[in-house]
């Protein structure tokens, strides 16, 4: 940006707080001087908010206190004033009932932190699953320049002869423990070996998927999301973020200049290439809605038909994020799929995506494959429709059993996750490997919060027979680290009267992924009878955030955002008197 188009100091947003010759501005200056800052520290300089999702139960973010200090160095060096804010830390696994329940709360908090304070730009520090979309949704709505600082993945796990990945191998070895092929001592050793450092899940789960999409969309510095959290390159990257956000403010590089529809479609293409999490469509639709961009399930399905998985990463493949870092990082993948990308999209470093990935090297063709030698012969993510999911459902063919992608079987129905765990291991349960496990009450309202219950456990008597996968259907989500022939996000959900609510034991269900079909093979007259007899479940909450959530959350195809938060209309700046 030329000097002629750069902001002048009096055009900074923070000038409204500090610049005028008024009693209110004087009070702002007094209170900032009270904290020990010098007058020249905040006069005519960009004020940068470091919005940090660190806390001591946000386990993937345990190092972000240090990274905030390293980002602070960069802000000072570039002539800005860094100020840290702690936002809701959504540590996956620890937060109940599910981090998805609180994603919108984080988004609201971020938007209001920015709007209510004299901030000219922000760095968003996060990485664990829902912190990524939550932070970005709020920052998009606030509209100031922002840059995402990814927490980075943990190191590879190792147990005996196995290289193990968080989440994926938890599920794999848990099934082996339940079937008796490993011991409780083995299990305790695995617990101690699987998460070896600070950082997010080292598989291509939701955390790494979302940071990959955010990088492809231009919201991080180039080739940063694969840097392991404890690598010395990571604090250096944090300092670079601090320097760059100051320049972004002077350049007035606001989100709307970066987040075009083409940028979001770059994220969709990246999702397919990395074999990413089934959670991603929900979050991307929510972010797009905040930016005023139309993004639908059909967009995801259309790209998935054209672009196969080229990253050999767990859970669809074999390798982990540390391996991808050594192989060249995300830039190596983006360079391999550049014919599917809009290369002229602007990114936070002021260059285009094409500029950032030109000649990006790949150091391991086994980890990052080529388009003509993909990892799988099936799609990364497919969108299903039919009378069981008129508004859509999601499946991940690349992590499914191929023989089950076309399947018809009898339903075994569970009315929620408590019912599942109470009965799934009952020796008298009428189930075999051809059955279809169906779980209700797992959606946005029914969960509540659409928990990751969709990857239902296999009945113990089938595990004993060697069964490790079967068709499972629910309105819930599944961890991005998990795998299996699992149909998710069935919409409308059962709790609001969607067709899933009408399924009964013994009903035949047809799954046909190549034809994108999901049908309940029950005649319409019988379904009408069941529909007339259906009663909505009692609400989970009568007050507080939970009551607001259940009253205003949208369904999965709309992004599970609150209906009153969607849209790109900017709210007026706060009055300062």
Describe the structure.
The chain is α/β, with parallel strands linked by helices and 577 residues long. The chain has 20 helices and 14 strands. The strands form three sheets. The chain has an eight-stranded mixed β-sheet. Strands 2-1-3-4 form a four-stranded parallel β-sheet, with helices on both faces. Strands 5-6 form a two-stranded antiparallel ribbon. Strand 13 and strand 14 form a beta hairpin. Helix 5 packs parallel to helix 6, helix 7 runs antiparallel to helix 8 (184-193) and helix 11 runs antiparallel to helix 12 (280-290).
Summarize this structure briefly:
The protein is an alpha/beta fold and 577 residues long. Helices cover 35% and strands 12% of the residues.
Number of H- or I-type helical stretches:
20
Helix content: 25-40%
Major sheet details: 8 strands, mixed
Strand content: 5-15%
Distance between the termini: 34 Å
Shape descriptor: globular
Spatial order of strands in the largest sheet = 7-8-12-11-10-9-13-14
Low-confidence stretches: none
Number of strands: 14
How does the SSE layout of this entry go?
Layout: H1 15-18, H2 23-34, H3 39-42, E1 47-52, H4 64-77, E2 81-86, H5 99-116, E3 121-126, H6 131-142, E4 146-150, E5 157-159, E6 162-164, H7 168-179, H8 184-193, H9 206-216, H10 233-250, H11 261-274, H12 280-290, H13 297-306, H14 321-327, H15 329-336, H16 353-357, E7 382-386, E8 389-395, E9 406-414, H17 417-423, E10 436-439, H18 460-463, E11 472-474, E12 486-491, E13 508-512, E14 517-520, H19 524-533, H20 544-552
Parallel strand pairs: 1-2, 1-3, 3-4, 9-10, 10-11, 11-12
Antiparallel strand pairs: 5-6, 7-8, 8-12, 9-13, 13-14
Helix pairs in contact: 4-10, 5-6, 6-12, 7-8, 9-11, 11-12, 11-13
């Amino acid at each position: 940006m030329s000097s002629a188009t750069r902001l002048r100091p009096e055009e900074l947003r923070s000038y409204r707080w500090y610049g005028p010759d008024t009693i209110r501005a004087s009070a702002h200056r007094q209170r900032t001087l009270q904290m020990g800052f010098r007058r020249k520290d905040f006069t005519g300089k960009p004020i940068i908010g470091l919005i940090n999702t660190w806390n001591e139960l946000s386990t993937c973010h345990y190092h972000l206190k240090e990274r905030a200090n390293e980002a602070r160095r960069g802000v000072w060096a570039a002539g800005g004033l860094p100020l840290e804010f702690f936002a809701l830390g959504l540590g996956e696994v620890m937060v109940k009932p599910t981090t998805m329940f609180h994603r919108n709360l984080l988004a609201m908090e971020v938007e209001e932190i920015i709007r209510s304070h004299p901030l000219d730009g922000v760095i968003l520090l996060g990485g664990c699953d829902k912190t990524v979309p939550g932070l970005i949704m709020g920052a998009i709505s606030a509209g100031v320049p922002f840059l995402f600082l990814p927490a980075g993945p943990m190191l590879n796990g190792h147990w005996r002869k196995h290289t193990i990945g968080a989440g994926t191998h938890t599920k794999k070895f848990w099934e082996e423990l339940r079937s008796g092929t490993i011991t409780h001592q083995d299990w305790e050793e695995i617990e101690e070996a699987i998460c070896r450092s600070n950082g997010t899940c080292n598989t291509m789960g939701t955390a790494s998927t979302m940071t990959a999409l955010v990088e492809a969309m231009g919201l991080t510095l180039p080739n940063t999301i694969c840097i392991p959290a404890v690598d010395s390159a990571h604090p250096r990257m944090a300092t670079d973020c601090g320097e760059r956000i100051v320049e972004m403010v002077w350049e007035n590089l606001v989100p709307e200049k970066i987040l075009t529809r083409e940028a979001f479609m770059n994220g969709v293409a990246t999702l397919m290439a990395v074999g990413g999490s089934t959670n991603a469509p929900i979050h991307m639709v929510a972010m797009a809605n905040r930016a005023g961009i139309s993004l639908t399930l059909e967009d995801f399905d259309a790209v998935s038909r054209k672009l196969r998985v080229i990253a050999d990463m767990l859970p669809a493949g074999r390798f982990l994020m540390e391996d991808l870092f050594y192989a060249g990082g995300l830039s190596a993948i983006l360079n391999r799929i550049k014919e599917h990308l809009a290369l002229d999209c602007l990114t936070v470093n002021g260059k285009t995506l094409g500029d950032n990935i030109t000649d990006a090297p790949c150091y391991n063709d086994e980890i990052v494959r080529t388009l003509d030698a993909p990892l799988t012969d099936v799609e990364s993510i497919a969108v299903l429709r039919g009378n069981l999911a008129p508004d859509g459902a999601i499946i991940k063919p690349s992590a499914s059993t191929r023989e089950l992608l076309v399947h018809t079987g009898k339903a075994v129905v569970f009315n929620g996750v408590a019912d599942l765990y109470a009965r799934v291991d009952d020796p008298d349960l009428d189930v075999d490997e051809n059955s279809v496990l169906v779980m209700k009450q797992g959606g946005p309202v029914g969960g509540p919060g659409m928990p990751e219950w969709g990857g239902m456990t296999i009945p113990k008597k089938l595990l004993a027979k060697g069964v490790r996968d079967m068709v499972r259907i629910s309105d819930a989500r599944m961890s991005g680290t998990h795998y299996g022939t699992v149909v998710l996000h069935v919409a409308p959900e059962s709790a609001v009267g969607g067709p899933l609510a009408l399924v009964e034991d013994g009903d035949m269900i047809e799954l046909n992924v190549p034809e994108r079909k999901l049908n309940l093979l029950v005649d319409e007259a019988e379904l009408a009878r069941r529909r007339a007899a259906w009663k909505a479940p009692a609400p989970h909450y009568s007050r507080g955030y939970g009551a607001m959530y259940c009253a205003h959350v949208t369904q999965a195809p709309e992004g599970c955002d609150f209906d009153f938060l969607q849209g790109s209309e900017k709210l007026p700046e706060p009055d300062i008197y």
